[in-house]
Amino acid sequence: MTPLAKEQPRKRKVSLAMLLPPPRSATALRRAEEGESGRTVVIALIANVVIGIAKLIAGLVTHSSGLIAEAAHSAADCVNEVFLAIGLYRARQPPDEAHPLGHARERFLWAFMAAIGSFLIGGCLSIAIAVSRLKTVHPVEGALVAWIVLGVSFVADGASWLQGLKQARSQAKDYGLSVWGYISRASDPVVRAVLVEDSAALTGLLLAAGGLALSWILGTSVPDSIASLLIGVLLAVTAFALARPFADFLVGRSIPVAHLERLRAIFDEDPAIEQVLLLRAMYSGPEEAIVVARAIPAPSLDIGELGRAMDALDRKIRDALPYVADVFIDVTGSEPRKIERSSEHERKGDPLSG
To answer: 306 Cβ partners below 8 Å, 6+ apart?
Structure first.
């Protein structure tokens, strides 16, 4: 090696994380500044820890399977909140070479795991307790203690539910939807999970109270055990209802049809676009979407005009849909080549040829 070659500095390897800032939507950045999701998770966790311990103690004292099932319900909700908190933490990690778009989608993963945990811990355990208690009929004791615990639990779960409802109302306004209309479409796993879980918790408390009242009146633990069974079924159904949409987001869910139509209208009305060949928009994280399009530009535009027109189109899309995190537009001079189907496959009746 010559002295001149030794003096030449070596090229430093630059990671994608240094080159590309994490794509974030205006909506996601505003949510992060507000910190509402973190508060909702903390309030729900504190409420469930306190009332879960109280339910367990009261269930052991009174021999109420309904209260023990509700303690399992609270334990499942505590696990859920921990998973949601982990998702919030992981989503803030910066992008790297292996994850150039960041870790925002991890929130869907941890929310999905929380739903599975609710099914196993809350649903299956409550059903097992109910089946076991139905085999041994006995009177329910200490009804006063149970009623006090149920009342305190209802207040605590109600406070957590109101916090979730407050967040849902705030976010629903951004989309012009009702609260429950927003919940059915929400990509934010925290607001969906906490509000649905707390609704199930309040319903479970009513079931436990009904079973306890009938057991006290009839002098048998059978109604209380049946309430425990119903609580388990409720938790299992709730867990499945939560897991299904989170699985969709993990696979890669498109934005709502109405928003996709609005997006197509923006492209169709733009004078710089002659024809849209492909248009896709899917969630890359909670309230963050990526738009991918292939289009034929207007032939009258030169390179400079085309660049400025695409920048203007990008801004127009973000203004119309603030949850869009990134826009990729592939401009092409012709329509994509059509793929000819093989006549040989058609003759053989190949199902792929249909």
So the answer is: 272, 297, 331
Contact between 79 and 7 under an 8 Å Cβ cutoff? The reply is no
- pTM summary value: 0.73
Name 282's Cβ contacts closer than 8 Å, sequence gap at least 6: 252, 253, 254, 255, 289, 290
Answer for the pair 59, 51: CB distance below 8 angstroms, yes or no: no
Per-residue pLDDT reduced to its tens digit, 73-129:
888 888 888 988 898 888 888 777 777 777 888 889 998 988 888 877 777 878 887
CATH assignment of 257-331, among 3.10.450.50, 3.40.50.10610, 3.10.180.10, 3.30.70.1350: 3.30.70.1350
How is domain 20-251 classified at the CATH fold level?
Alpha-lytic protease prodomain-like (1.20.1510)
In sequence order, the 6+-apart residues with CB closer than 8 A to the CB of 234 are 123, 200, 203, 204, 207
- Tell me the per-residue pLDDT of 275-319, one tens digit each, with 9 for 90 and over: 999 999 999 888 899 999 999 999 888 889 999 999 999 999 999
| Inter-residue contact 297 to 309 (CB < 8 Å) | yes
Bridge pairing between strands 273-285 and 288-297: antiparallel
Contact 124, 234 (CB under 8 A): no
Please list the residue range(s) of the chain that carry CATH number 3.30.70.1350: 257-331
